[in-house]
Amino acid sequence: MRAVIFDLDGVVVDTAKYHYLAWRKLAAELGFVFDEANNERLKGVSRMTSLEIVLETGKIQNLSMEEKIALADRKNGYYLDMVSTIDESEILPGIPAFLERLRAEGYKIALGSASKSGGMILKKLGLMPFFDAVVDGNLVERAKPDPQVFTKAAEMLGVPCKDCVVIEDSAAGIAAAAAGGMKSVGIGSSEILGNADIVVPDTAELPGLDLPK
Ligand code: G6P
Ligand code: MG
């Protein structure tokens, strides 16, 4: 039995752009510009780690834990507003066909997302019936590049890690897959995702792709 474990943001759906816009809005309110080059470092990492990176780029120091939690909550509020109307039209190209193919070929399918909104988004997209296991930020303590989100998914599926392929758009996620002893397919640029077993420029390639063994 083999399995495919999907990251969510930037792989199944284009929510990566909403995370970015929400952080950018928070940064603007704090008086600095948060640009796309810096945003690459936020992909795949937890909300609080993202906040630390955003504050570092704005050279904001010495905040209390309460202040940091309030800022992270504020960003999450903006994000939740932005995704409140999300629907299947925002599923990325090739994903439905790829899910159908995996199901027809007998693969187990799981979600492995750092986002605490991961399960909720999957439901809104109507994709829940494809997934045999859903692991999101509510079920893990350690964020990518720690492999916990993927190893937990493998455990829930009952598939050995070496028989799992992770689909990821972030460097942290590709590192997490390798740390968990899993194969990986990177979605995006090979400059950023060079450690993946295979890199494709976008999700439209997935339905016809030979998965790494
Ligand atoms: C994913 C995204 C990150 C996001 C993180 C936490 O890994 O790639 O950009 O910050 O999840 O998401 P959350 O919805 O819990 O704030
Ligand atoms: Mg992602």
TrEMBL record:
The keyword Magnesium applies. It comes from the Bacteria. Belongs to the HAD-like hydrolase superfamily. CbbY/CbbZ/Gph/YieH family. It catalyses: beta-D-glucose 1-phosphate = beta-D-glucose 6-phosphate. CDD domains: HAD_BPGM. SUPFAM superfamilies: HAD-like. The record marks 113, 144 as: Important for catalytic activity and assists the phosphoryl transfer reaction to Asp8 by balancing charge and orienting the reacting groups. One of its GO terms (biological process) is carbohydrate metabolic process. Mg(2+) binds at residues 7, 9, 168-169. InterPro entries: B-phosphoglucomutase_hydrolase, Beta-PGM, Beta-PGM-like, HAD-like_sf, HAD-SF_hydro_IA, HAD_sf, PGP-like_dom2. It comes from Blautia producta. Its EC number is 5.4.2.6. Binds 2 magnesium ions per subunit. Keywords: Carbohydrate metabolism, Isomerase, Magnesium, Metal-binding, Phosphoprotein. Coiled coil: none annotated. The keyword Heme does not apply. It is an enzyme of class 5 (isomerase). This is Beta-phosphoglucomutase. The active site is at residues 7, 9. Its cofactor is Mg(2+). The gene is pgmB.
